[in-house]
Structure formats: C-alpha cells, structure tokens
Amino acid sequence: MTQRALDPSGFLGELYISFWIPTAVLTAALVIKLPTIIRLWRDPLLRAVGGLLLLACAVFVSCTPSTIAGINRLTGVPNIAAPWCYSLITAFCGSCLLLLVTWRNGPSGRSAATRRARRWVVSVYSGVIVALWALFLLADAPEERLRDLDTHYATTPFMREEILLYLVAHAVACLITARLVRDWVRAEGLDVWLRSGLRLLGAGYVLNLVFAAAKLTAVAARWCGRDLDWLSTDLAPPVAALSAILVAAGFILPHAGQYLRDRWRVRRAHRELRPLYRLMRTVSGEGVPFVLRATPELRLTRRETFIRDALLVLARHIDTGLGRRSYDAALALGHPAERARALAAAVSILAAIETRARAPEPAGAAVGPGTTHLLQEIGAVSRALRRPADIAAVRARAGAPAAGVTVPE
C-alpha cells in the first residue's frame, strides 16, 4: 500500500468542495424565501429563516482563502479576517438557535418564556462575538495564515482561547439545534415535504457537529504536541460545505415541494374537467379562448367558469325526476353514493342536452332547475363522463332512452 493511500490528507484533498457551491445553493434558498419574508416581515419565524440564510451565505463568502486574503490586505492587519469569520460563524449559530426557539413557541412567540429565551441567545452569542474581538486584540498573530490558522495558532496565548471559544459556541448551538430538529421531525401531522426538509436540516446540523469535532480534535492534538492538522484543513472544509448544501436544501425542499404539488393539483384538475368541458362546448358552440401567457390557475378558473355558465343554460332542461331515478339506479348497480351522484348528474346533463336540441323551450311539469349539485361537483361529474359504459347502464336501469349525445373524450 502506497504512502499516499495511507495519508488521509492526500485523499481528502481530492474531495475538495468549492465554498462557492454551497454559497450558490444558500443564495438560491434565500432568493426563493425572500418574497415570502418581505410580504410577511412581521412573522418572527420568517425573519429568523432569512437571517440564518443571509449569515450562512456571508460565512462561506468570507471564509474562502481569496476573501480572507483580501480582508487582510484591505485592513493592513494580518489575520484580522479570523475574528471576522469567527464572528459570522457565531452569529450563524445564534440564528440557528433563534430559529428553533421561535418555532418551539409558535409563530407569534409573544410569551415571557420565549422573550427570555431570545434575549438569552442574543446576549450570550453577542457576548461571544465581543470576546472574540477582544481576544484577537490581545493576541500576537503576525504571520498570515489563510487555511490553517486554527491549528497554527492553537497554542498561542489569547488566539488559543479565541479559537476554542468559537468552536465550542458553534458545537453547542449545532448540538441543540440538531436535537430540536429531531424532535420536530417526530411530531405528528407534518406535511411530507416539510418532514423531508427537516430531515435534510437535521443531517446538515449533524455534519456541522462533525466539522466542530474535526476542528477541536486537530486543535487538541496541537496542545498535546501531535499533528492532526489534516482534520482541520482537509476534512472540516468539505464537511462544512456539504452541511451548508443540506441546510439550504432543507429550506428549499418544503417550498419547492409545495409549489410542485399545488401545480400538479391544478393541472390534474384542469385535465379532469376536459370531458365535461368538451361536452359543454356542444351547448354553447364555443370554448374558452386560449391565452399563451395565462397561468395554469387562470386556465383552470376559466374552464370552471365556462362549464358552470353552460350548465346554467341547461338549468331549465334538467329533469330532476330522472336525476333521482338515475341515482337510485346507480346505487342498485353497486356504485358508492358519491359515485352514484356523479353518474346521475352525468345522465341528467346528457338528457338535458338532448331535450334542448329537440325543443329549445322546456316542456313538462317534471322539468325544473337542478344544477346546484352540478355546479358544486363538476370535477366528479367530469370523471364520471370518462366511463360511458357505466352511464349507459344507469340510463337503462333508470328507464331513460338511449343516449343520443356522444361523450367527448
């Protein structure tokens, strides 16, 4: 076995994940959430989500070696990017806790316990950020380090305490957040997309714990005189990048899943109305004009409106007696009550179209308005029209004449 195969740092170096990848994913999550956050700005839960995503983006932009070098050059202070990056990571950890505190106590979060918890999180993590800058000012770190500052200065007075402080604050926040997310996943009544998103969030925070553990182990090894720097320089960065991707995906998935599910429901409802829509076109002689830029929701609304308007035209030709007989006939044929009502309505519509074709004006005492159910259940009626054999069986048993109208497919 080669020395390269035995060297974990060489293997992990090939697994490098550019920090710009999680940055792009986090930015996409923020862009997706931003309209809702702006529209419902007073919702503390949405504000917490927005703050967390914004800070996560800032962390990965700031922690790239090129950005670190740029911050150091801009200020003229070697390694000043360290407390800056540590502060952003600490603020991100505080945002994670604020998000979970807000969720645990409901969207309003106006109880005294909730306010105390928020104040505790803000005060503790603000204090940590202040301490990080104070320790950096007291430390002597003249040599710029872009990738291995944590381990290079692990034994330097004040820098040692600063590094340990930010890592412990990060680990504690991720541990609490991961546990709260786990409890949230186990709650009943969650939407499948929300549950899946929470599982991704949980996995992301667990990987954040792996990141903190790798960093702490490398730093502790330096204290003991050993060299495990590869844990900090080669293992921790790709773990952090992967955790950020999972966290971003956890926020994106519920939103995207809900959007796709709603879109699918609209398209399915539009498609299900096709048989009844085509049948109603024989009544009005025209259809809904096609508009290229119309949204699926608008197309569905227009189709529903067209069908209901056409049914109102047929209202005076509906034979309510035939409808009752058709319903009893459908029940006798073994159809469930809901299906029987839809079949009876389809029979009544077909008979009304035939009656209207023979005599534009209604005649006979048994004829009267009977479209209330039809207007409410056009989806079920349209689905029933897809089974001409069932309709024919109901008509025959109800004593209605054979259909003279062809049901469009």
Automatic annotation (TrEMBL):
Enumerate the transmembrane spans: 15-32, 44-68, 80-100, 120-139, 163-181, 202-223, 235-257
* Native species: Streptomyces capoamus
Name this polypeptide is given: DUF6545 domain-containing protein
Q: Which UniProt keywords apply?
A: Membrane, Transmembrane, Transmembrane helix
Q: Name one Pfam family in it.
A: DUF6545
- Per UniProt, residues of the DUF6545 domain are 263-378
| Record InterPro entries | DUF6545, MAB_1171c-like
